[in-house]
Automatic annotation (TrEMBL):
Taxonomic source organism: Henriciella marina
A Pfam family reported for this protein in Swiss-Prot or TrEMBL: S1
Protein EC: 3.1.13.1
Family membership noted in the UniProt record: Belongs to the RNR ribonuclease family. RNase R subfamily.
Domain S1 motif: 622-703
Upper classification of the organism: Bacteria, Pseudomonadati, Pseudomonadota, Alphaproteobacteria, Hyphomonadales
Stretches for region Disordered: 700-755
Annotated Basic residues bias: 729-755
Protein keywords: Cytoplasm, Exonuclease, Hydrolase, Nuclease, RNA-binding
Gene3D superfamilies documented for this protein: Nucleic acid-binding proteins
Record protein name field: Ribonuclease R
Presence of the UniProt keyword Nucleotidyltransferase in the record: no
Length: 755
């Protein structure tokens, strides 16, 4: 066994809790030379399987034990009125609750509140952790400001938070309302006040009206601080900039076409295929954004700051100004455009033989929607795609079918979960919720984009260029243990000794595709996956089952792709607008920033959709719906309504008069005594009891009875919850988890990551 191993590292951290950095651990264990590489891998494995939490760039702490000194975030006011928090790591808050116990020694400062962060000394007494503040950090604007609805009161007003996570309410004196009227959507900043007194605020901006149908997106944009307006210098550049002169190959004679959603606001990729004697040639052409957005310019700084475009049901907040995103850089039909293209050749079985990158000029010969392309292939006449059927579409489908053979051998993760789309009319009102149709046309474009992304990563890695990979690590041991625990409750075996591979997940999904638990298994498999991230280090893409992968195909809406374009330009000698040395040296920080902006956009998009769904259901209070339980917590049940895909919550206090115990491993609430249960995946009938469009929340009342006790199951004895605040059950560690922990102590854990 190599030194240092997991047990040695964990014992050292337990014995020396203040030695948290890699350097301190290495010094304490007297690690030298190649052993440092082993230590780095051990720490990474312990982080990936959830045993350690990253608390700084090169510092760790055990996830079940707060570090003696570290950053803490205050999350809630306990029932006894005390402020409670938890330690903060790279992935957010972790570890057990910590009670605020004032400032340390003679240190003084403002009283912290919910949402505040600070540096604290943490100690344990009688099984409970206490935090003594060393410093309260200055809050960022997005942490202190409040976005919500202004409500008039006799003495002025109040601002009610639009976030389900932020429970604050600001009282507003009359002079601080700044003209806000009842029902206005506003942002407000807190005013200094007494630590234990009411929170007062001042309105800083009126952003709209609650009765405006487009308020859902406005709230999400402001709540997540997504920049909307472009600075003047950025707009001036966008209106005047011309592409940099570079040697270009003429591709205008090739009938490249774009295939996009019918309501696409920009077009950054075009495709073409040609049958060869012994295979296929495919060209994927991408908008040459790098020719316009050059390093060090105002356009570049703003694009990097935004990170990506953000898409809402009624609008898009673009990464680039309209003049570029929808015009100069967009591959609009019948106009010449600069492009970065990759020409790929495949044999008859879909295996790639070669590829080459081209900086060229192209012309999109047609703009088709997915529906139009699919209709033509399906033999429907009279549509826009009909005249392109023989010269363009049939070769594209032929190449796609050949690639299907290689794809089947590669066996990427076959999760195909249904997506809902919010239909909005010109007035901004929700007219319906429909399930997005999934055509072969979608899959064709996805497959060609994947091939182009792989080619970009392979080329840059071959020439030794810095680049941003799109990394999706394997599921962590802890998530696989949770998956195994749950599958056992369905009498499905998932051996933890076998390596996590996509074909194992696919076999699980296929074996139960037609059973009653199909939807639940798909949901659980999805939750077991890591989240994808950007990184200058390559850990492969588990979901796609690829060893090299980088984002290349969407530079209009993702800054990561623009970096890959620049790396190709500089590495292949395609111009003077490639990746600079300064940017290459900053890729780790840029990657971290882009992950943050991507998650910010995802959260805002999700919130806006939740609010639109709530608005759509607001006049249906009292109606009954069929839903499926998608989450089980000590506080109650999360339920997804089948007709709309909207998510609602049924608190434990509203289920029945039973005393409910939360079984984490089984993902169920079980009634003490009777053993009746509400469990993950269970289909239930619910009544819509309350809708809060401001927060996008739905309160549901479960009408269906719980399922009966499972044969041979013992009645639960752990603490549970009924009316009032739900209790928490610690429960015993499952056999699967114990097995995983025991194995983890003898060998390296599986690589973790993000999906």
């Amino acid at each position: 066994m190599s030194f240092p191993d997991r047990e040695t590292v964990l014992k050292f951290i337990a014995d020396n809790p203040s030695a948290t950095t890699k350097q301190e651990i290495a010094r304490g264990l007297k690690v030298k030379g190649r052993e440092r590489q082993t230590l780095r891998q051990v720490l990474k494995d312990l982080e990936n399987d959830g045993t350690l939490e990253r608390t700084a760039k090169r510092a760790w702490a055990k996830t079940d034990t707060p570090p003696p000194t570290g950053v803490i975030v205050f999350e809630e006011i306990a029932s006894d009125g005390e402020l409670m928090g938890r330690s903060v790591g790279r992935e957010g808050a972790f570890g057990p609750p910590i009670r605020y116990a004032g400032y340390s020694g003679r240190t003084k400062g403002p009283a912290p509140g919910v949402g505040d962060k600070g540096l604290a000394r943490i100690n344990e007494a009688n099984g409970e952790y206490h935090a003594k503040l060393l410093k309260l950090f200055e809050k960022r604007d997005e942490e202190t400001s409040l976005t919500g609805r202004f409500e008039k009161t006799p003495r002025g007003g109040r601002v009610v938070s639009a976030s389900r996570k932020d429970k604050r309410t600001f009282l507003i004196d009359g002079t601080d309302a700044k003209g806000a009227e009842d029902g206005d959507l506003v942002t407000a900043m807190p005013k200094p006040g007494k630590p234990n007194g009411p929170a007062f605020g001042v309105v800083t901006e009126i952003i709209g009206r609650m009765d405006d149908p487009r308020a859902a997106s406005l709230l999400a944009i402001h709540g997540h601080d997504i920049p909307v307006e472009f600075p003047k210098d950025v707009l001036n550049e966008a209106q005047t900039i011309k592409p940099l002169d570079s040697p270009r190959e003429d591709l205008t004679h090739i009938p490249l076409i774009t295939i996009d959603p019918h309501d696409a606001r920009d077009h950054d990729d075009a495709v073409h295929a040609e049958k060869l004697k012994d295979g296929w040639k495919v060209i994927v052409a991408i908008a040459d954004v790098a020719a316009y957005v050059r390093p060090g310019t105002a356009l570049d700084r703003e694009a990097q700051k935004r990170g990506n475009s953000t898409y809402f049901p009624d609008r898009v907040v673009p990464m680039l100004p309209f003049e570029l995103s929808a015009d100069a850089c967009s591959l609009v039909d019948n106009e010449d455009r600069p492009c970065m293209a990759v020409e790929l050749t495949f044999d008859r079985s879909g295996s790639k033989r070669s590829h080459r990158f081209i900086r060229g000029t192209m012309r999109s010969h047609a703009k088709l929607s997915y529906e139009e392309a699919q209709a033509a292939i399906d033999g429907k006449t009279g549509g826009e795609g009909e005249k392109w059927l023989e010269p363009v579409l049939k070769p594209l489908w032929g190449a796609y079918e050949a690639l299907g053979e290689a794809r089947a051998l590669r066996a990427p993760l076959a999760l195909d979960l249904p997506e809902k789309r919010v239909e909005i009319n010109e007035d901004g009102k929700v007219t319906g919720i429909i399930e997005k149709e999934r055509f072969d046309a979608h899959k064709l474009i996805e497959e060609f984009m994947i091939q182009a992304n792989v080619a970009a990563a392979e080329t840059l890695e071959k020439v030794g260029s810095p680049l941003l990979y799109r990394v999706h690590d394997q599921p962590s041991d802890s998530k696989l243990a949770a998956l195994s625990d749950f599958l056992q409750t369905l009498d499905i075996k998932w051996p933890l000794g076998e390596r996590a591979q996509t074909h194992r997940f696919n076999r699980l999904l296929n074996d139960h595709a037609d059973g009653e638990h199909a939807g639940t298994i798909s949901e659980i498999v999805l939750r077991s996956q890591a989240q994808a991230v950007y990184s200058p280090e390559n850990n492969g893409h588990f979901g796609l089952n690829l060893t090299k992968y980088a984002h290349f195909t969407s530079p209009i809406r993702r800054y990561s792709d623009l970096i890959v374009h620049r790396a190709l330009i500089s590495s292949l000698g395609m111009g003077e607008d490639g990746l600079t040395k300064e940017m290459a040296a900053s890729l780790e920080d840029i990657a971290s920033h882009l992950v943050d902006t991507e998650r910010r956009s995802m959260a805002a998009e999700r919130e806006a959709t939740d609010r639109y769904l709530a608005l759509y259901l607001a006049d249906k209070v009292g109606a009954e719906f069929e839903g499926r339980i998608t989450g089980v917590t000590p506080a109650g049940l999360f339920i997804r309504l089948g007709s709309t895909g909207a998510d609602g919550f049924s608190p434990i206090s509203k289920l029945s008069d039973d005393y409910w115990v939360h079984d984490d491993g089984a993902m169920a609430l079980i009634a003490r005594g009777s053993g009746k249960r509400f469990e993950m995946g269970q289909v239930v009938t619910v009544e819509l009891a309350e809708v809060t469009p401001l927060q996008g929340g739905l309160l549901l009342k479960v009408l269906s009875p719980p399922r009966p006790r499972k044969p041979g199951e013992k009645p639960p004895s752990s603490r549970g919850g009924r009316s009032g605040p739900p209790g928490r059950s610690r429960g015993k560690m499952s056999k699967a988890r114990k097995k995983t922990r025991q194995k983890a102590s003898h060998k390296k854990g599986a690589k973790g990551g993000k999906s």
